[in-house]
Amino acid sequence: MDVDVIVIGGGAAGLFCARTAARRGRRVLLLEHNGRCGNKILISGGGRCNFTNLGTTAANYVTRGSPHFPKSALARFTPHDFLTLVEHHGIRWHEKKLGQLFCDNSSRQILQLLEEECGSAGVQIRTNCAVTSVRQAAESGEHDHPAWIVETAQGTFTGGSLVIATGGLSFPKLGATPFGYDLARQFDVALVPVRPGLVPFTWSPAERDRFAALSGLSVDCIATTGKDNPAFRENLLFTHRGLSGPAILQISSHWQAGETVTLDLLPGTPVLELFAAHRAGSKEVRSVLKTVLPERLVQSWCGPEIPARPIAQMPQRDLERLARSLNAWEIRPAGDEGYPKAEVTIGGVATGELSSQTLECRRVHGLFFIGEVVDITGWLGGYNFQWAWASGHAAGLAA
Fold first, then answer.
1. Does one domain contain both 106 and 252?
2. Alpha helices in 235-382 (DSSP H)
3. Is the CB of residue 198 less than 8 Å from the CB of residue 250?
4. Rounded to an integer, what distance in angstroms lies between the CA atom of residue 276 and that of residue 316?
């Protein structure tokens, strides 16, 4: 089969790219190795798909390359553009918080939208179609064929442009593979080392002994790591294995193994001032802290080293140490829970290898990389879907 564009990967970016290219009149073939497209779409947002974020800017992305790289694609296909498409398909939606948009009913509606858009545009989709090899026609001496030859379990396909939308390594149970990275290496396209992102932390043995009993407890916090990284105010969740919740997932994308993470468990409440306000009374530390923190956390935090006596009788250095531990709790995670629990993959195809306008390789004509396989990783909250739509749109206009 000869086509104009072959898209490998039937996730959010691949489907949107295929749809965009086909609407230009291009003959498009999409290959998906799973039995169906969009597995990660279906589980996203707790089953309701956080399909974009109204506040999306380039500052909401992590990359080892230029922080300006996402600007072009994001400017040419905005959250409002995708929202217009959502409303055109009659999908009811709501804003949860911080610009995060979700389906009222089911994430399946977003997948149906993409499949209907591809169908009406004439995209040919082949599922259960694992790719076994990719080569350029010129390299094999087949000059009378189109530029790309893709061999699969269902036969050999040829196309003028090749778009890689195979995602990262997160959620291996859903079929994630390193295909995109392997293909980049095949064509000498530089990669940024990959690691799990938006992922829970794990305890060190000592911290597990102290805090594992708090599993299931959630508190508001501000999470930071490193002087040049953003701070995130979201909920923190204690688990049997470590720390999770939105604040931890957000900061994990900026954390490097071996670094400390600082957590303010009482944002906006200077604990030392709280203690000072009760210096003249008879209240104990625990009773004061229970007015602003869950009792389970207070009991675990104070422990046997904080005696049951009035604040007025406590040494100032002990109050300062306790206040500092709550407003600036420093932990050094033992690690993270890896790709099975990671929502995204940090790293990937280096942005310096790609055109920011088209996502085409600068040194390999007709080869495009889009979505999560690129070293562009969004914050939690719909930003990664918006990158999928925007990068897919950019490549779809050029492939």
1. no
2. 246-252, 271-276, 285-289, 295-302, 316-327
3. yes
4. 10
Cα gap 101→98, rounded to integer Å: 9
Residue 343 near residue 323 (C-beta atoms within 8 A): no
Coil vs helix vs strand at 135: strand
* Alpha carbon separation from 142 to 133, 149, 163, 339 (Å, rounded): 16, 10, 21, 40
Question: Do 222 and 173 have their domain in common?
Answer: no
Q: What is the DSSP letter of 278?
A: T
User: Do residues 187 and 244 share a domain?
Assistant: no
**Is 245 in the same domain as 328?**
yes
Could you tell me the residue range of the domain that residue 245 belongs to? 201-336
| Pair 17, 133 in one domain | yes
CA angle (14, 168, 42) in 5-degree steps: 60
Digit-coded pLDDT (tens) for 221-243: 999 998 889 999 999 999 999 99
CATH of the domain at 184: 3.50.50.60
Q: Are 234 and 253 in contact (CB under 8 A)?
A: no
> How far apart, in whole angstroms, are the C-alpha atoms of residue 298 and residue 327?
14
Q: Which of 329, 363, 336 is nearest to 258 (CA)?
A: 336
Tokens of 366: 């007709």
Does the pTM exceed 0.90? yes
Q: Which helix (H) or strand (E) element contains residue 280?
A: none
Q: How far apart are the first and last CA of the chain?
A: 18
Same domain, 183 and 43: yes
191 in the same domain as 71: yes
Reported as a single tens digit per residue, the pLDDT across 238-274 is 999 999 999 999 999 999 999 999 999 999 999 999 9
Distance CA 43, CA 354 (A): 30
Regarding whether 369 and 283 lie in a shared domain, the answer is: no
Number of structural domains, the chain? 2
- The answer to whether 1 and 158 are in contact (CB under 8 A) is yes
Residue 110 Cα to chain centre, angstroms: 18
